[in-house]
From TrEMBL:
Residues 365-433 form the Argininosuccinate lyase C-terminal domain. Its main location: cytoplasm. Residues 435-453 have a biased composition (Polar residues). This is Argininosuccinate lyase. Keywords: Amino-acid biosynthesis, Arginine biosynthesis, Cytoplasm, Lyase. Its EC number is 4.3.2.1. The gene is argH. It comes from Kaistia dalseonensis. It catalyses: 2-(N(omega)-L-arginino)succinate = fumarate + L-arginine.
Length: 464
């Protein structure tokens, strides 16, 4: 089949293999909305500038509206012979309105067209991701407030370190996601310049108004260098970098869910909404959703790496290599949105197992630091010495396999004679967390006020 858009240039159509490697319509049809919006803005601008007739522009805009409806209704026939979304739409426009369709491509090229479409798509996607991340933050902050006083073990090296609260742990993720959202907003701000009108690479001799199309498409301004405009894929890579880091955070959270919901930990209960049974082992409740959130990270980081490798050796300006920017980005963002939705669902679903958390919080001599701090405060001991004294008391407890609170005063005094029974008051888990009142610390009071701060900030945010 001969490519009708090239006119008579090729007497024979591209070989099947050429069509196979060249066509992008199977995936870039996803850009139809952005492509139509870009073309409508371009046509209106051309008419305003007197480059095409107002009546032609009207026909073009109306024809594109028809195409939008056709695509959304599923009645549009996509053709691989027409390569990509741009040519598919333009060709259908010609069928619909005839000659004026041929005027739409004045003063533009597919190079600036695809850059514009994809920027608009990435921008829309960033907005969707941001809204989803906000929902996740709300779910986490609400749960954190509810469980601000629920003690649990805090870990370093996955060894019991010091008791913390469940709310505090959840708020750590609210902070991470807050930074993720900040990175997406940074990327969005830098992305938001209009490449349309850069044409093939050198700009155009037609008196176009790039500020006009920028405004119509919600861009802050036109891009300032036509070569850069059609060569730049920073905006995708940067959005993918933000996505990668966000996915890493979701993955760490998912990993905690896997650990917490295991039979060995039993820190949280997940309902069967987000777990599956085993086909052979009836006792099992597998945290599949969390595992898949963890796994999606690979695809997302992979997409970023892949596009970086595609771009790294490309001379200016547009190269067809850049067509490879889309599939992976589509997949990565689809994966990210799914992962965020699953994480949010699991947060809403999970219930902390209070008794197990409390028991675990006290195990592993988790209040040893509180003992050392008491020695510093009550006996004015230098911290290094207190650490040493505490170590000897922990050794006694460990040897006898008892908790720190159960070490008799006489044994403590054998380690250091100045210790009094006031020490026992700091050795409980609840006392421990309540004492951590430094800014950002785990005390339930702090956690409640931090959760409230987030709840208020998130509620105040205007939805875009
Ligand atoms: N399908 C192409 C892409 O995604 C559109 C731009 C094609 N430009 C060109 N000169 N062949 O990159």
């Amino acid at each position: 089949m001969s490519n009708s858009m090239w006119g008579g240039r090729f007497s024979e159509g591209p070989a099947a293999i050429m069509e196979e490697i060249n066509a992008s319509i199977d995936f870039d049809k996803k850009l139809y909305r952005q492509d139509i919006a870009g073309s409508q803005a371009h046509a209106r601008m051309l008419a305003r500038q007197g480059i095409i007739g107002a009546d032609d522009a009207e026909k073009i805009v109306a024809g594109l509206d028809t195409i939008l409806r056709e695509i959304e209704a599923g009645t549009f026939t996509f053709s691989r012979a027409l390569e990509d979304i741009h040519l598919n739409i333009e060709s259908r426009l010609k069928e619909l309105i005839g000659e004026p369709a041929g005027r739409l491509h004045t003063a533009r090229s597919r190079n600036d067209q695809v850059a514009t479409d994809f920027k608009l798509w990435v921008r829309d996607t960033i907005d969707a991701v941001d809204a989803a991340l906000r929902e996740l933050q709300i779910a986490l902050a609400d749960k954190a407030f509810l469980h601000a006083g629920q003690v649990m073990p805090g870990f370093t090296h996955l060894q019991s370190a010091q008791p913390v609260t469940f709310g505090h742990h959840l708020l750590a993720y609210v902070e991470m996601i807050g930074r993720d959202r900040g990175r997406f907003q940074d990327a969005r701000r830098r992305l938001n310049e209009n490449p349309l009108g850069a044409a093939a690479l050198a700009g155009t001799s037609f008196p176009i108004d790039r500020f006009d199309t920028a405004k119509a498409l919600g861009f802050d301004r036109p891009t300032a260098n036509s070569l850069d405009s059609v060569s730049d894929r920073d905006f995708v890579i940067e959005a993918l970098a933000a996505a990668s880091l966000c996915a890493i955070h979701l993955s760490r959270f998912a990993e905690e869910i896997v650990i917490w919901s295991s039979a060995q930990f039993r820190f949280i209960k997940l309902s069967d909404k987000f777990t599956t049974g085993s086909s052979i082992m009836p006792q099992k409740r597998n945290p599949d959703a969390a595992e898949l959130v963890r796994a999606k990270t690979g695809r997302i980081i992979g997409a970023q790496t892949a596009l970086q490798i595609v771009m790294k050796g490309l001379p200016l300006a547009y190269q067809k290599d850049m067509q490879e920017d889309k599939e992976q980005a589509f997949d990565a963002f689809e994966s990210l949105e799914l992962a965020i939705a699953a994480a949010t669902g699991m947060v809403l679903d999970m219930e902390p197992e209070a008794a197990n958390l409390k028991k675990a919080a006290g195990s592993g001599f988790a209040t040893a630091t509180d003992l050392a701090d008491w020695l510093v405060r009550a006996l004015n001991m230098p911290f290094r010495e207190a650490h040493h004294v505490t170590g000897r008391i922990v050794a006694i407890a460990s040897e006898r396999d008892i908790e720190l609170t159960k070490v008799p005063l006489a044994d403590m005094q054998a380690v250091h004679p100045a210790i009094t029974d006031a020490v026992y008051s700091v050795l409980t888990v609840d006392k421990s967390v309540r004492s951590r009142t430094s800014y950002g610390g785990t005390s339930p009071k702090n956690v409640r006020s931090q959760a409230k701060r987030w709840q208020n900030a998130l509620a105040r945010e205007k939805r875009r």
